[in-house]
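User: Can you predict the 3D structure for this chain?
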Amino acid sequence: MDSPAVTVITLTYKRATDLAEALPALLSAIEEHPGADLLVVDNDEVPSARGVVDAFDNGRLRYVHEPRPGIAAARNRGLDETADSDLIIFIDDDETPGPGWLDRLLEARSRYGAEAVVGPVLSEFDGPLDPWIAAGRYFDRLRHKSGTVVEVAATNNLLLDRAFVSDQGLRFDEAFGLSGGSDSVFTRQLRRAGGRIVWCDEASVTDRVPASRATRKWVIQRAFRMGNSEARARIYTAVGRAEELGERLRAVGNGLARMGGGVFGVVRGTLTRSLPARSRGVRTTLRGAGMFLAAFGYSYFEYRRRPAKAAAA
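Assistant: Here is the predicted structure, written as structure tokens:
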């Protein structure tokens, strides 16, 4: 049987160093798969990553420049550039695939016959992690037994059946481009279209977390954004007014429950001097607040970009 045409897609935005470190591992991952290639989508206003890609001078490595701002626009450019591929795999530019990563994804796709396969992302830090962040488990991600069907997935380690995506007219909604959550909307729509997303726990990648993201400010902002974008995605993909209203009420109820439980955790942790209780309480409170505000139309733009003149100043 011929090897499927597989394109691994990595998006990048002003992270030349991360990209230069990621590309050798990604090229190594596709080396033993004759039908595989690697596509870099540069989402900077100017083609700042072209030199990094060109330096590798590898025929299985492609570069495209997508200047329209927002991660959803970059993801859609990845779709546009891979119409002839059988399978596509999204992975971040600061991630390193584990041993046998591509084999495991392809095996899971073949075994389960799913339209999408998602694997775990493991975090690696530049130095010792702030005990408050570690206690709150801010970088822990949910994992499942291989073969588990999941309802939603991120694009930081995601294989997709390209023909199914095309047949169903699936695109990443650019209304979520600067807020995050377009992958949640996309995969929820994939599920509504009859596609299955299967977990493969053996196909792991490692996320290199820089010191700039291993801060209390960054993790609490991310907790709020995750709650906000999760609820917004559920509301946005609802079908009909009744279902949309139900999702808004769900966001209100879940948001209030999380805020109440989180505040209780902070108080309990303070009284008992429990660092995990305090830290997790903050995380739960902020995630709940993001959900609650989403019910009333509030969007938090984590990826909002400063105008070029302001950034230069």
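Residues 308-313 have pLDDT under 50 and may be disordered. The domain at 6-209 is CATH 3.90.550.10 (Spore Coat Polysaccharide Biosynthesis Protein SpsA; Chain A).
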